[in-house]
Specification:
Elements: E1 18-22, E2 30-34, E3 37-41, E4 46-52, H1 56-64, E5 66-70, H2 77-85, H3 93-97, E6 101-102, E7 112-113, E8 118-129, E9 133-145, E10 164-167, E11 170-173, H4 188-198
Antiparallel strand pairs: 1-2, 1-5, 3-4, 4-9, 5-8, 6-7, 8-9, 10-11
Length: 199
Protein backbone atom coordinates (compact mmCIF):
# COMPACT_ATOMS: atom_id res chain seq x y z
CA UNK A 1 0.00 0.00 0.00
CA UNK A 2 1.35 3.43 -0.92
CA UNK A 3 2.03 6.18 1.61
CA UNK A 4 1.27 9.86 1.16
CA UNK A 5 3.81 12.19 2.73
CA UNK A 6 2.35 14.87 5.01
CA UNK A 7 3.84 17.73 7.00
CA UNK A 8 5.98 16.47 9.94
CA UNK A 9 4.05 16.53 13.21
CA UNK A 10 3.64 14.75 16.52
CA UNK A 11 1.16 12.16 15.25
CA UNK A 12 2.12 9.36 17.61
CA UNK A 13 -1.23 7.82 18.59
CA UNK A 14 -2.85 6.60 20.72
CA UNK A 15 -1.31 7.98 23.89
CA UNK A 16 -2.51 8.22 27.49
CA UNK A 17 -4.01 11.55 28.50
CA UNK A 18 -2.93 11.80 32.14
CA UNK A 19 -3.64 14.36 34.83
CA UNK A 20 -0.38 15.58 36.33
CA UNK A 21 -0.77 17.10 39.77
CA UNK A 22 1.81 19.41 41.24
CA UNK A 23 2.33 21.94 44.01
CA UNK A 24 5.17 23.87 45.59
CA UNK A 25 5.81 25.73 48.81
CA UNK A 26 4.54 28.89 47.10
CA UNK A 27 1.81 27.42 44.87
CA UNK A 28 -1.41 25.62 45.73
CA UNK A 29 -2.03 22.20 44.20
CA UNK A 30 -2.74 22.32 40.46
CA UNK A 31 -3.59 19.86 37.71
CA UNK A 32 -2.34 19.91 34.12
CA UNK A 33 -3.58 17.39 31.58
CA UNK A 34 -0.77 16.03 29.44
CA UNK A 35 -0.99 13.73 26.43
CA UNK A 36 2.77 13.72 25.90
CA UNK A 37 3.81 11.39 28.72
CA UNK A 38 5.67 8.13 28.52
CA UNK A 39 7.75 5.42 30.14
CA UNK A 40 11.47 6.00 29.60
CA UNK A 41 13.30 3.58 31.91
CA UNK A 42 12.59 0.47 33.98
CA UNK A 43 15.65 0.45 36.29
CA UNK A 44 15.24 2.90 37.91
CA UNK A 45 11.57 3.29 36.98
CA UNK A 46 11.13 6.62 35.19
CA UNK A 47 8.56 8.51 33.13
CA UNK A 48 8.65 11.75 31.18
CA UNK A 49 6.17 14.57 30.71
CA UNK A 50 6.44 17.33 28.10
CA UNK A 51 5.24 20.77 29.23
CA UNK A 52 5.17 24.11 27.43
CA UNK A 53 7.22 26.82 29.13
CA UNK A 54 4.24 29.19 29.25
CA UNK A 55 2.02 26.74 31.15
CA UNK A 56 1.17 27.70 34.73
CA UNK A 57 2.37 24.30 35.98
CA UNK A 58 5.82 24.68 34.38
CA UNK A 59 6.98 27.08 37.10
CA UNK A 60 5.50 24.87 39.84
CA UNK A 61 7.31 21.82 38.50
CA UNK A 62 10.58 23.71 38.28
CA UNK A 63 10.25 25.09 41.83
CA UNK A 64 9.16 21.87 43.52
CA UNK A 65 11.14 19.24 41.61
CA UNK A 66 8.28 16.76 41.81
CA UNK A 67 4.98 15.75 40.24
CA UNK A 68 2.36 13.00 40.23
CA UNK A 69 1.09 11.27 37.09
CA UNK A 70 -2.53 10.26 37.69
CA UNK A 71 -3.96 7.70 35.26
CA UNK A 72 -7.39 8.62 33.91
CA UNK A 73 -10.34 6.25 33.93
CA UNK A 74 -13.63 6.88 32.18
CA UNK A 75 -15.08 8.46 35.34
CA UNK A 76 -12.32 11.09 35.43
CA UNK A 77 -12.24 11.85 31.70
CA UNK A 78 -14.44 14.97 31.79
CA UNK A 79 -12.23 16.44 34.53
CA UNK A 80 -9.11 15.55 32.53
CA UNK A 81 -10.46 17.41 29.50
CA UNK A 82 -11.43 20.41 31.64
CA UNK A 83 -7.97 20.54 33.23
CA UNK A 84 -6.45 20.51 29.75
CA UNK A 85 -8.34 23.55 28.49
CA UNK A 86 -8.44 25.71 31.64
CA UNK A 87 -5.50 27.34 33.37
CA UNK A 88 -4.58 27.07 37.03
CA UNK A 89 -3.73 30.77 36.88
CA UNK A 90 -7.46 31.47 36.82
CA UNK A 91 -8.94 28.87 39.17
CA UNK A 92 -8.45 26.05 41.62
CA UNK A 93 -8.92 23.06 39.29
CA UNK A 94 -9.27 20.59 42.16
CA UNK A 95 -12.26 22.56 43.48
CA UNK A 96 -13.70 23.26 40.02
CA UNK A 97 -13.73 19.54 39.16
CA UNK A 98 -14.74 18.22 42.58
CA UNK A 99 -11.43 16.38 42.91
CA UNK A 100 -9.60 15.68 46.16
CA UNK A 101 -5.85 16.20 46.64
CA UNK A 102 -4.42 13.15 48.43
CA UNK A 103 -1.07 13.47 50.24
CA UNK A 104 1.79 11.29 48.95
CA UNK A 105 4.26 10.37 51.70
CA UNK A 106 7.19 10.12 49.26
CA UNK A 107 6.77 13.73 48.08
CA UNK A 108 7.01 17.05 49.88
CA UNK A 109 4.38 19.06 48.02
CA UNK A 110 2.63 17.37 45.07
CA UNK A 111 -0.58 15.49 45.91
CA UNK A 112 -2.18 12.63 44.03
CA UNK A 113 -5.79 12.85 42.84
CA UNK A 114 -7.89 10.66 45.14
CA UNK A 115 -10.47 9.85 42.46
CA UNK A 116 -7.97 8.46 39.93
CA UNK A 117 -7.38 4.70 39.84
CA UNK A 118 -3.57 4.79 39.90
CA UNK A 119 -0.86 7.36 40.56
CA UNK A 120 2.89 7.47 39.91
CA UNK A 121 4.71 9.87 42.24
CA UNK A 122 7.87 11.29 40.68
CA UNK A 123 10.98 13.28 41.61
CA UNK A 124 12.37 15.30 38.72
CA UNK A 125 15.84 14.06 37.72
CA UNK A 126 16.47 16.22 34.68
CA UNK A 127 14.81 18.82 32.45
CA UNK A 128 15.58 18.89 28.73
CA UNK A 129 14.81 22.06 26.79
CA UNK A 130 13.58 20.88 23.41
CA UNK A 131 11.81 23.82 21.74
CA UNK A 132 8.09 24.39 22.27
CA UNK A 133 8.18 21.98 25.24
CA UNK A 134 10.52 21.11 28.08
CA UNK A 135 10.82 17.42 28.88
CA UNK A 136 10.72 16.63 32.61
CA UNK A 137 12.30 13.27 33.40
CA UNK A 138 10.88 11.89 36.62
CA UNK A 139 12.04 8.99 38.76
CA UNK A 140 9.05 7.09 40.15
CA UNK A 141 9.37 6.99 43.93
CA UNK A 142 5.91 5.66 44.80
CA UNK A 143 2.94 4.06 43.04
CA UNK A 144 -0.57 4.09 44.47
CA UNK A 145 -3.29 1.72 43.28
CA UNK A 146 -6.94 1.93 44.36
CA UNK A 147 -7.63 -1.07 46.60
CA UNK A 148 -10.60 -2.15 44.44
CA UNK A 149 -8.16 -2.86 41.58
CA UNK A 150 -5.96 -5.25 43.56
CA UNK A 151 -7.05 -8.90 43.31
CA UNK A 152 -6.74 -11.43 46.14
CA UNK A 153 -3.53 -12.79 44.57
CA UNK A 154 -1.97 -9.31 44.55
CA UNK A 155 -2.28 -8.75 40.81
CA UNK A 156 -3.53 -5.38 39.56
CA UNK A 157 -6.69 -5.63 37.46
CA UNK A 158 -6.28 -2.73 35.01
CA UNK A 159 -9.50 -3.63 33.18
CA UNK A 160 -11.43 -2.53 36.26
CA UNK A 161 -9.74 0.87 36.04
CA UNK A 162 -11.47 1.52 32.68
CA UNK A 163 -8.48 3.50 31.47
CA UNK A 164 -8.78 5.84 28.50
CA UNK A 165 -6.62 6.79 25.53
CA UNK A 166 -6.20 9.94 23.42
CA UNK A 167 -5.90 9.64 19.66
CA UNK A 168 -5.23 12.82 17.69
CA UNK A 169 -7.74 15.04 19.49
CA UNK A 170 -10.30 12.37 20.40
CA UNK A 171 -10.68 10.39 23.65
CA UNK A 172 -11.33 6.63 23.47
CA UNK A 173 -12.18 3.85 25.86
CA UNK A 174 -9.97 0.78 25.62
CA UNK A 175 -11.57 -2.07 23.70
CA UNK A 176 -11.29 -5.84 24.09
CA UNK A 177 -7.88 -7.39 24.72
CA UNK A 178 -6.31 -8.55 21.45
CA UNK A 179 -3.23 -10.32 22.77
CA UNK A 180 -0.56 -10.30 25.46
CA UNK A 181 3.19 -9.80 25.45
CA UNK A 182 4.66 -12.81 23.66
CA UNK A 183 1.38 -14.13 22.26
CA UNK A 184 2.85 -14.35 18.74
CA UNK A 185 5.24 -17.08 19.88
CA UNK A 186 3.18 -18.73 22.64
CA UNK A 187 2.44 -22.45 22.55
CA UNK A 188 -1.18 -23.17 21.52
CA UNK A 189 -2.24 -24.28 25.01
CA UNK A 190 -0.64 -21.19 26.60
CA UNK A 191 -2.25 -18.93 24.02
CA UNK A 192 -5.68 -20.40 24.70
CA UNK A 193 -5.32 -20.19 28.48
CA UNK A 194 -3.89 -16.67 28.56
CA UNK A 195 -6.40 -15.25 26.10
CA UNK A 196 -9.21 -16.50 28.34
CA UNK A 197 -7.52 -14.86 31.33
CA UNK A 198 -7.28 -11.43 29.73
CA UNK A 199 -10.82 -11.29 28.33
Amino acid sequence: MAFQSVRPGALLSPVPAVMVSCASQAARPNIITIAWAGTICSQPPMVSIAVRKDRFSHRILTESGEFVVNLVGEDQLRAADFCGVKSGRDMDKFAACGLTPAPVAALEHAPAIAQCPIYLACKIQQVLELGSHDLFLGRIVDVGVQEALVEADGKINLQKARLTAYCHGVYHSLGPALGFFGYSVAAPEVLERRMKEIQ
